[in-house]
Amino acid sequence: GDAAATILERAISIQTEMYDFDRCMQAVVKDRQLQGRGVARVRVVTGPNGSKRFVCEPVIWDDYRRGPAKRWEDIQWEAFRHKMTREDLVDLDPKIGALIPLDVTLDHAETEKGDSRDVPDMFKRATVYEIWDKSTRKVYFIAESYKGAPLSVQDDPYKLRDFFPTPEPLYAVTTTNTLVPVCGYNLWRKLAEEIDNLTRRISALVKVIKWKGIYAGSDETAINALKGLEDGELAPAPDSARMMSQGGIDKAIWLMPVEQAAKTVQTLYEARERAKQALYEQ
Question: Which of 161-165, 171-175, 233-237, 256-260 has the lowest mean pLDDT?
Answer without folding.
Answer: 233-237
